[in-house]
Amino acid sequence: MTQAPAFDQLASPIQKWIRAQGWGELRPLQVRATHAILGGEADQIIAASTAGGKTEAAFLPLISQVLTTEPRLGGFDLLYIGPLKALITDQARRLAEICQETELPVVPWHGDIATSTKARALKQPAGILLITPESLEALFIRRGPEIPRLFAATKAVVIDELHTMLESERGVQLRSLLNRLDRRVGRRLRRIGLSATLGDMALAGACLHPDDPAAVGQIEVKGGGELRVQLRGYVSGGEKDQSTTDAIAGHLFQHLRGSDNLVFGGSRQSVEIYADRLRMLCESEALPQEFYPHHASLSRDHRDFVEKRLKDGRLPTTAICSSTLELGIDIGDVTCVAQIGAPFSVASLRQRLGRSGRRAGRPAILRQYAVESRLEHKASFADQLRLGLLRATAMIELLIEGWCEPPQSRALHLSTLVHQILSVVAERGGIRAAALYDLLCRQGPFRSVDKPLFVAVLRAIGHPDRALLEQASDGLLLLGRIGEKLVEHHSFYAVFQTPEEFRILHGSQELGTLPIDTILAPGMLLIFSGRRWLVQSVHSEDKVIMVTSAHAGAPPVFGGDAGQIHDRVIERMFTLLSEKDLPAWLDKTATELLQQARSNYARMPFKHGVLRLGKTTTVIATACGTVRTTSLALALRSFGYQVQQYDGFLELCGDGDPCEPLRALANGSLPDLWSGDPSLVFEKFHPWLTPELLQADALSSRLDLASLPETCRRILAAPSL
DNA sequence: GACCTGCTGCGGTTTG
Measuring from the CA of residue A133 to each C1', which nucleotide is nearest? Predict the structure, then answer.
């Protein structure tokens, strides 16, 4: 059977639009997507680099399908889910252009959209609805009875930036909402996922269609372009006048000036420091400004300004940014991506690099900067092993090999489960426990939650002290006193936690916000928005900090949490320590630092994976990632040791031979992980769970008790150095 | 030892 050319399968208004674009032909990705979408009913994953035309690949055939279906029923024809408001606004503009010659309305829907627009869309739902997971959540809670009317005729759900929606809290929430949507309209809505960064297409397919992952079609166009990498090493605390910060800023200034670039600073504080240095370098050379900071504490106005400058491409622009510019609206091609300090995951490094070298014939360029401290006489083992440089090197090697972290699927997500329980009860007004379990755990995303665990969660949040839920005499679950309050407030819709923030005002101008846990007092100095400021007053009630311009500054302190490094990254760091090869992309200093780390490691008298340093101090090479290393750290604490954690290593302080607890654990003895009363409240609804449930949740995601014997056996069997 | 994401409905008043 011969297939009609993709173009001929599209509806005529779409063909007209394509001709008006002056496209000679459809791209291979769009041809394949058109055949797959119009030729069957299967879910699809469309994966290609940022500028690969994924949006058109999905929507040209989907809109064609809508236009050629008769009769058109009421309700939205297509549903698009986007993780960012800015992305929704941007995509709505593009889709409105495509739909210009059709009758299809394009409806962006998020917190910044006027209520009148939403009211109109609810009255006459049609066309393409573009919405955030949170606003969809709000529709369920506020407009529960109308859901079938709104989505009865919807042909497909397009999920943009699918990789951010896999096993994250938001991803589980979205999958739960889509499952609830399917149940309400009485059929399964087809799902189309779009992404630039998917490490494992099969795992992503399992997230999209857990009942039949093999049925998910995969349309992938690999970048395959040239990648140029350099890792530059720097040593801080040296005798030279120039600080490493100045040296890196100078190098960035020299190599990035005159083109568009992204510099990922690692933390907002470091973003501010580098933006400040680069601004001063421009000033001292009497050059126009082209380096701008970009992070979430800066005002939307400032961020829009930087994004627009990058996108329009007329003036050379380098954004010094945090992960704000890792995904989101199309900012055009950048010449190079720089990363200061080791990244936390290969996946995010890959996503960042995807912003460079997207035009044909132009390489993607990654400039990695690693700072290590000068080794003093009694340097710590961690400094001697150059762990930051080692991690950056390991991650770049894995990136080049095409690997990135897979989604973690064993997590219970109990905080998100509580959220969805409250949401379903609010939507329905009341529901029986068995029906709730079916909806969320049997059919929905909480499949690792068994019945006894589910009942324990219901009991916890139904306890009179917590009062999220209560049970009527006929058994129906209803919202409790506190549950009612939580669901009523608009802050309920997001499943993730956010700290409260202070607004920073310079006169009447808002510069941005800082987390409330920052310690700031009048008279203190800070660098913010790339400039220096003096704190004039702090108003706790209005959450406002007034500042004036200053000439000298100390950087503000931002809060934060620890990241999770994957086992595979740490394993590669140990390989790097013991082998002899030197990656060609290390500069002279980085090469010296790596060789130094190797010779220092070889000189450390490790007996198997254990190094005794003095009478009470011991270093253990766990050689595994954050989850397993943290599990061992907690276990050893229960044996009375003080434990400090590093990448792939633990430093123990305490009496006795630590090999004894290691042997006991290797033989399967169960430690009391909770003896030191570790904090287990990380997520939004954790405060309403019991200690037992918090422990179960932690064991499913942040800890791995089952791995302990094997971890300890490997440490005890490691070759001695 | 870090970063990011999101947000409704109602009632009263004013204006064309």
Answer: B6
Q: Which residue has the higher pLDDT, A666 or A529?
A: A666
Which of A523-533 are b and which e, b meaning 16 or more Cβ less than 10 Å from the residue's Cβ?
ebbbbbbbbbb
Whether omega for the bond prior to residue A71 falls within 30 degrees of 0, making it cis, is yes
**Pair A170, A207 in one domain:** yes
Is A249 within a domain? yes
Quick one: tokens of A647?
């990448």
Q: How far is the CA of A115 from the C1' of B10 (A)?
A: 12
**A589 within some domain:** no
CA of A115 to C1' of B14 (A): 18
Contact, A170 CB vs strand B, < 7 Å: yes
Domain shared by A113 and A194, yes or no: yes
What is the domain extent for residue A690? 604-717
Shared domain for A203 and A129, answered yes or no, is: yes
- pTM (2 d.p.): 0.92
Window 109-138 of chain A: CB closer than 7 A to strand B:
110-112, 115, 118, 132, 134-135, 138
Answer yes or no: do A347 and A441 share one domain.
no
A558 pLDDT band (50/70/90 cuts)?
very low
Query: Structurally, how many domains does chain A consist of?
Result: 5
Residue (of A570, A533, A571, A576) closest to A551 by Cα position: A533
Residues 455-494 of A with CB under 7 A from strand B: 490-494
Q: Tell me which DSSP letter residue A440 carries.
A: I
Residues A306 and A430 both lie in one domain? no
Q: How confident is the model at residue A241 (pLDDT cuts 50, 70, 90)?
A: low
Identify whether residues A149 and A184 lie together within a single domain.
yes
Nucleotides of B under 7 A from a protein CB: 1-10
A581 in any annotated domain: no
For residue A281, tell me if it sits in a domain. Answer: yes
Query: Can you spell out the DSSP letters for A24-71?
Result: SS--HHHHHHHHHHHT----EEEE--TTS-HHHHHHHHHHHHHHT-SS
The yes-or-no verdict on residue A560 having pLDDT over 60 is no
